[in-house]
C-alpha cells in the first residue's frame, strides 16, 4: 500500500503508507513562495523567480532537473544582495532542493539544503520559510527511520503554518503527520483525526486536487490496515481518479501500489500483479531508488503468493540492491521481512529466522510499533518451521502482546466513529448555512414588524436552532456510546466493554444498564474469564485470504455467544483471540471451556466459492479469586492468569483447555507480574487448582474440503 511516491509495506501484502512520503513532501514544498519585496529594496531577479517556480513543478516528476534549477536560482540570488526578500527566496530554493534530493534518495544533500534553508529563514524571521525547512527535515527524518524526530520537526512546522494562516501547508503537514502515525506508530485513531482535519481544509479550499487525492489515499491506508477492505478500495479509487483528473499520472503510483497490496490481501494475486507493474512503470520515470525498491519488493511478494519462487527471488534481490544505499531503516526492515517469508517458502527456516531477527533489531531501534509487531510474527513463523515450538511460542506471545498494544481500545471502532462525526459535522455545517440563509430572508421579509416582534422572533429562532442542536448532540452521543462497545467486524463486544463494564462488576458494581435492559450479577456468583485463541489461524489468511479469515471470525463470534448462553459475554480480544466473560459457579468453568472447545472443533465455515474449512482452538480460563481480606483481584490479573492457561493448552498440542480455579486458601492479589513459577507455586500450595482437558497432543491444523 502507499500514499504518494514511496511507501513502506507491511507483512506480505499489508497496506503500507510509507510509499506516500515523496508525494506528500512535494505537496508541502511545491508552491513557490513569492519573495517579499521591501520598499526601496532591490527586487528578486525575475530569472530566479522563474527557476524557483520550475523547481517546485519538477520535484516529483523530474527531481534531478529540480535540483539543477534550484542551484541556478541560488547562484543568481547569491549576487542579488542580502535584502530580506532575497534571503527568503534563497530559503525557498534550499527547501525545494531538499525535497528533490529526498526524492532522489540523496539524504545527506537533502539535510544540508534543509538546514541552510532553516538558517536563512531564522535570520530574517521568515516563519513561512522556517516551516518549509522544518517540514523538509521532518520528512527526511521519517525516511531515515526516526519517526520521533520527524514528528517533532513537523509539529514545529505546523505551529508556524497555523500562526501565519497557511492553510494549504497546514493540510499537507497534517497529512504527513497522519502518515507517520499510520505507518510507524500504528496509532490509527490519531492518524484518522489528523487526516480528517486535513480533508476539511482541502475541501474548504477547493483548489488543491492533488493534495485532496493524497489525503483520500491516506484515509484508504488507515482503513486497509483495519481490514475494512471495501471502504479502503473505495477511497483508493477516488484518489486515483483525482490524481488522473489533475494530470498527475506519476503521483498515482502510490495509490496503484496500495490497490495492489489490498488485492493481494484479498486473495487476488493476478490483479495485484497488474497494479504493481503499472506502479513500477510510473516510478521508473521519477527514478526514486526508495520507491523503486518498494515496487520490486511488492512484485516479489506477489510472485511468492503465486508460487513463482525464482521470480520472487530475482525481484527481491533487485529491491534489496536498490534499497541498500538509501539509508532508510523502514525500507530495510520491510525488505528483510519479505526475505524471511521467501526463505521460509523455500524450506530454509534458519535463514528465515536470521532475516526476521535482523528486522526485529532494526524495528526496535526505530521504535516503530507496527514493524516490531510484524517482525515478532515473522520470527515465530520461522521458529515454528524450524521445529522449535517452545521458541516459537515465546515469540508468538511477544507478537500477541504487541498486537494488543496496537489494536487496543477497539481502534477500528474509534476510527469509524471519528469518520461518522466528520460526516455529521459536515452535514451540520451545511444545515446551519441553509438555516442562516432562511433566517435572514425571513427577517428581511418582516422589516415592517415591530422591534419587539423582531426580538421575539429572533429568540424563538435561536431557541429552535439550539434545541435541534441539543437533540442532535444527545442522539449522536448515545449512538457513539453504543458503537464504542462493539467490535465492527464480528459484532462481539470489545476491549473497551471489559474496561468500562466488567471492571465495574469486578469492583463490586453488580448492576449493569445497557439502554433499557439491565442485568444483575449476584455477588455470590463467580466471574470466569476464558481466553480462546484460534489454532493456526495464519494458515487461513495465507491460504484463503483475509476475507475468508474475517468470515471465520464472524462465524466464531456468533457460535461462541450461542455456546456460552445468556450468562456469558463474548469479546473480540484482538486478532484471532476471543475473551468470554461468564458469571456462574466456579465448578462449571471447566464444563463451559469444554463446551466452547467442542463447538469450535465441530463448526464448519462455508466460503463463497463452496469450500469449507474447520479450525480448532486453545482455551485458557481463570476464575476470579475472592480473597476474604486484602485487595481484590483486578480483571487484568485474572485475564493474565487465563492467558497462561491458553499457552499451556497450546503446549498440550492445541485443541485443548487449561484452567485455574481458586483453592480454599486463595492467592493474594498484590502481585506485580504473574510468572509460570509463581503460578506453579500457588498450585503446589493449594491456593490454585489446575484443571486440563484430555485432548490428545495432535497438531490441530486447518482442514479444507
Features:
alpha+beta, Serine Threonine Protein Phosphatase 5, Tetratricopeptide repeat, Alpha-Beta Plaits, six-stranded mixed beta sheet, elongated, disordered C terminus
Return the domain count: 3
Figure out the total of helices. 27
Uncertain regions: pLDDT < 50 for 5+ in a row?
1-23, 34-41, 409-416, 509-521, 695-705
The end-to-end distance, rounded to whole angstroms, is 33 Å
| Class derived from helix and strand content | alpha+beta
What is the highest CATH level, the class of the largest domain?
Mainly Alpha
Count of beta strands: 11
| CATH H-level homologous superfamily name of the largest domain | Tetratricopeptide repeat domain
How would a textbook summarize the main sheet? 6 strands, mixed
Our Rg estimate from Cα atoms comes to 29 Å
Helix percent band: 55-70%
How much is the average pLDDT?
Answer: 79
What is the CATH architecture term of the largest domain?
Alpha Horseshoe
Describe this structure as you would to a colleague.
The protein is of the alpha+beta class. It has 3 domains: 17-346, Tetratricopeptide repeat domain (Serine Threonine Protein Phosphatase 5, Tetratricopeptide repeat), CATH 1.25.40.10; 411-445 and 456-484; 495-704, Reverse transcriptase/Diguanylate cyclase domain (Alpha-Beta Plaits), CATH 3.30.70. The chain contains 27 helices and 11 strands. It has helices spanning 21-29, 46-58, 63-78, 84-104, 107-124, 127-143, 147-163, 167-183, 188-205, 209-225, 229-245, 253-265, 269-286, 289-305, 309-324, 329-345, 349-366, 369-385, 389-406, 411-445, 451-484, 495-506, 537-544, 546-564, 589-602, 635-651, 676-685; strands at 511-514, 517-520, 526-534, 568-574, 577-584, 605-606, 612-614, 617-623, 656-662, 688-692, 703-704. The longest helix is centred in the middle third of the chain and has 35 residues, at 411-445.
Amino acid at each position: 500500500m502507499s500514499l504518494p511516491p514511496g511507501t513502506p509495506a507491511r507483512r506480505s501484502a499489508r497496506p503500507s503508507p510509507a510509499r506516500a512520503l515523496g508525494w506528500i513532501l512535494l505537496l508541502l514544498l511545491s508552491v513557490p513562495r513569492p519573495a517579499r519585496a521591501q520598499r526601496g529594496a532591490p527586487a528578486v531577479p525575475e530569472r530566479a523567480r522563474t527557476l524557483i517556480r520550475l523547481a517546485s513543478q519538477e520535484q516529483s516528476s523530474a527531481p534531478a532537473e529540480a535540483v539543477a534549477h534550484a542551484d541556478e536560482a541560488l547562484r543568481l540570488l547569491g549576487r542579488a544582495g542580502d535584502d530580506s526578500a532575497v534571503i527568503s527566496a534563497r530559503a525557498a530554493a534550499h527547501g525545494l532542493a531538499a525535497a528533490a534530493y529526498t526524492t532522489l534518495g540523496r539524504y545527506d544533500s537533502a539535510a544540508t539544503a534543509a538546514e541552510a534553508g532553516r538558517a536563512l529563514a531564522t535570520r530574517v524571521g521568515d516563519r513561512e520559510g522556517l516551516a518549509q525547512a522544518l517540514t523538509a527535515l521532518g520528512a527526511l527524518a521519517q525516511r531515515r527511520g526516526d519517526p520521533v524526530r520527524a514528528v517533532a520537526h513537523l509539529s514545529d512546522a505546523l505551529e508556524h503554518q497555523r500562526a501565519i494562516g497557511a492553510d494549504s501547508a497546514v493540510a499537507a503537514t497534517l497529512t504527513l503527520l497522519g502518515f507517520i502515525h499510520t505507518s510507524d506508530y500504528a496509532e490509527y485513531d490519531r492518524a484518522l483525526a489528523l487526516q480528517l482535519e486535513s480533508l476539511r481544509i482541502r475541501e474548504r479550499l477547493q483548489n488543491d486536487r492533488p493534495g485532496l487525492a493524497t489525503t483520500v489515499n491516506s484515509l484508504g491506508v488507515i482503513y486497509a490496515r483495519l481490514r475494512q477492505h471495501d471502504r479502503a478500495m473505495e477511497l483508493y479509487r477516488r484518489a486515483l481518479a483525482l490524481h488522473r483528473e489533475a494530470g498527475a499520472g506519476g503521483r498515482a503510483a502510490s495509490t496503484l501500489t496500495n490497490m495492489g497490496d489490498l488485492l493481494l490481501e484479498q486473495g487476488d494475486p493476478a490483479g495485484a500483479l497488474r497494479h504493481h507493474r503499472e506502479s513500477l512503470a510510473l516510478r521508473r520515470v521519477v527514478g526514486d531508488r526508495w520507491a523503486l525498491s518498494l515496487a520490486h519488493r511488492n512484485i516479489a511478494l506477489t510472485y511468492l503468493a503465486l508460487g513463482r519462487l525464482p521470480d520472487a527471488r530475482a525481484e527481491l534481490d533487485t529491491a534489496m540492491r536498490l534499497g541498500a544505499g538509501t539509508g532508510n531503516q523502514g525500507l530495510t526492515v520491510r525488505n528483510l521481512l519479505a526475505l524471511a517469508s521467501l526463505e521460509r517458502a523455500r524450506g530454509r527456516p534458519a535463514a528465515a529466522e536470521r532475516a526476521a531477527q535482523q528486522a526485529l533489531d532494526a524495528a526496535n531501534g526505530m521504535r516503530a510499533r507496527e514493524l516490531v509487531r510484524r517482525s515478532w510474527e515473522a520470527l515465530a513463523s520461522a521458529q515454528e518451521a524450524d521445529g522449535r515450538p517452545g521458541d516459537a511460542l515465546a515469540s508468538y506471545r511477544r507478537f500477541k502482546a504487541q498486537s494488543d498494544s496496537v489494536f487496543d481500545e477497539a481502534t477500528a471502532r474509534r476510527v469509524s466513529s471519528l469518520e461518522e462525526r466528520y460526516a455529521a459535522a459536515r452535514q451540520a455545517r451545511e444545515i446551519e448555512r441553509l438555516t442562516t440563509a432562511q433566517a435572514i430572508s425571513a427577517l428581511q421579509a418582516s422589516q415592517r414588524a415591530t422591534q419587539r416582534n423582531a426580538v421575539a422572533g429572533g429568540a424563538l429562532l435561536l431557541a429552535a436552532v439550539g434545541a435541534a442542536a441539543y437533540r442532535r448532540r444527545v442522539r449522536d452521543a448515545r449512538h457513539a456510546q453504543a458503537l464504542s462497545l462493539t467490535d465492527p467486524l464480528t459484532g462481539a463486544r470489545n476491549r473497551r466493554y471489559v474496561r468500562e463494564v466488567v471492571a465495574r462488576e469486578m469492583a463490586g458494581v453488580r448492576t449493569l444498564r445497557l439502554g433499557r435492559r439491565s442485568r444483575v450479577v449476584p455477588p455470590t456468583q463467580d466471574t470466569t474469564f476464558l481466553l480462546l485463541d484460534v489454532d493456526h489461524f495464519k494458515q487461513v489468511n495465507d491460504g484463503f485470504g483475509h476475507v475468508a479469515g474475517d468470515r471465520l471470525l464472524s462465524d466464531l463470534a456468533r457460535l461462541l455467544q450461542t455456546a456460552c448462553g445468556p450468562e456469558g459475554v463474548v469479546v473480540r480480544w484482538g486478532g484471532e483471540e476471543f475473551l468470554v466473560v461468564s458469571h456462574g459457579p466456579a465448578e462449571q468453568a471447566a464444563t463451559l471451556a469444554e463446551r466452547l472447545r467442542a463447538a469450535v472443533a465441530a463448526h464448519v465455515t462455508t466460503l463463497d466459492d463452496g469450500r469449507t474449512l474447520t479450525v480448532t482452538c486453545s482455551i485458557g480460563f481463570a476464575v476470579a479469586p475472592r480473597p476474604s481480606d486484602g485487595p481484590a483481584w483486578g480483571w487484568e490479573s485474572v485475564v493474565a492468569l487465563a492467558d497462561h492457561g491458553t499457552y499451556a493448552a497450546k503446549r498440550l498440542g492445541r485443541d485443548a483447555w487449561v484452567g485455574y480455579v481458586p483453592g480454599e486458601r486463595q492467592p493474594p492479589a498484590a502481585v506485580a507480574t504473574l510468572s509460570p513459577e509463581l503460578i506453579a507455586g500457588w498450585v503446589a500450595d493449594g491456593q490454585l487448582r489446575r484443571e486440563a482437558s484430555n485432548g490428545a497432543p495432535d497438531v490441530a491444523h486447518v482442514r479444507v474440503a
